[in-house]
Amino acid sequence: xxxxxxxxxxxxxxAGCGSTSxxxxxxxxPEIASAVDPSPTHPSSGMPVPSExxxxxxxxxxxxxxxxxxxxxxxxxxxxxxxxxxxAIHFVTGTPECYGADATVTETDTxxxxxxxxxxxxxxxxxxxxxxxxxxxxxxxxxxxxxDRRVING
Length: 154
Fold this sequence. Notes:
It comes from Rhodococcus oxybenzonivorans. Residues 18-52 are annotated as: Disordered. It is a single chain. The chain has 154 residues and is α/β, with parallel strands linked by helices. The chain has one domain (47-154). The protein contains two helices and nine strands. It has helices spanning 2-16, 30-36, and strands spanning 51-52, 60-62, 69-73, 78-82, 86-93, 99-107, 111-120, 134-141, 150-153. The strands form two sheets. It has a five-stranded mixed β-sheet, with no helix packed on it. The protein is elongated, with a radius of gyration of 24 Å. Residues 1-39 have low confidence and may be disordered.
């Protein structure tokens, strides 16, 4: 009797997993699709397009460190307008006792492309570092006021 019950359940499971034609597939409404993938990518670089957020202070403030080691490109998630000719970029990295960040900027009339790199501090090479994610902020100087230019990941 147990074998028959298992066979019936198996048949029901297989019947429930049948395929549907492409016309029967549900479509995802645009408002749900944007919630599923809220970060569009830039067409030429494939990097996420960061969003502007209000200028309040976010997370741990990092100072630019061009001497970081084992550096790798890190996309920033958002940015804020800062005082003067600066923008503040917001990203995730390790603790500032062991990890640092640096950025290079390329400016045009329409865009400000910021390439963020994060890596280890040279003085932490022989230290034990905890693996904790930190939401960080780095102020990046610009050659000209931001105005209405777009800020994008490099």
